[in-house]
Amino acid sequence: MSNRALLEVIALDVEDAVAAQAGGADRLELVTDMAADGLTPPRETFAAIRAAVDIPLRVMLRKSDGFAAGDVSVLVEAARGLRAEGAEEFVLGFLHPDGSPDLDAVEALLAELDGCRWTFHRAIDRAADRDGLRKALAELPGLDTYLTAGAATGVADGLPVLLAEAAAGRRGEPGYAPRILVGGGLTLAHLPALREGGVDAFHIGGAARPSGWDRPVSAAAVAEWRAALA
């Protein structure tokens, strides 16, 4: 059995996607508007990227900054259009103002996704009760990943939580079966402790763009991460 870690890279367009794949990315998270922490890209962008690369793509379903779902019908329409273009994997997750999971919004989208695999994104890091959220979502179809830093402020503060949750997953605790995908302030210096703790999936955005968030993905930067995870 391979112990190769998964490396997911944020891509905004074809240029990003091609560079990320060339650098060794295993999967892309497709978004637009990184200033808002990633929103749903146009279906035309998905189609162009799908034609340009041959690695898996997870597409963000999020229409506004923050973790409130907003108009769910708009999200459902976006999901329908992306599915029509061939999208098969997604990223989503919504909270109520009190920090509890918005299951109605999530389930409305899952009805449209019809069994597609998906990631619950960093809304978990703003949840009032992480364990309760995991248990509430445990039986939802297609959920196979949590994108998390372990804390709203990033991996540096969330490392103990990430290691504890990885251990809970190994013990088979309810709600901890989905893979932990670590992202949010992640640096190369965090990798040894995370790998030792059994974490095997990593997500980078700014780290793939050493010239700045407003610059394209660097294949060399992605290759550095790929090598570090070898």
Model description:
It contains 8 helices and 8 strands, in the order βαβαβαβαβαβαβαβα. With 230 residues, the protein is an alpha/beta fold. An 8-stranded parallel β-sheet has the order 7-6-5-4-3-2-1-8, with helices on one face. The protein is globular and about 40 Å long.
**Which outline best applies?**
globular
Q: How many distinct beta strands?
A: 8
**Major β-sheet strand ordering:** 7-6-5-4-3-2-1-8
The value of Rg in angstroms is 16 Å
What class, by secondary structure content? alpha/beta
Mean of the pLDDT scores? 96
Number of helices: 8
Largest sheet geometry: 8 strands, parallel
Helix content: 25-40%
Strand content: 15-25%
Spell out the blueprint of helices and strands:
Layout: E1 6-11, H1 14-23, E2 27-30, H2 43-52, E3 57-60, H3 72-84, E4 89-92, H4 103-113, E5 117-120, H5 130-137, E6 143-148, H6 155-170, E7 179-182, H7 191-196, E8 201-204, H8 219-228
Parallel strand pairs: 1-2, 1-8, 2-3, 3-4, 4-5, 5-6, 6-7
Helix pairs in contact: 1-8, 3-4
Q: Key terms for this structure?
A:
230 residues; alpha/beta; eight-stranded parallel β-sheet; 8 helices; 8 strands
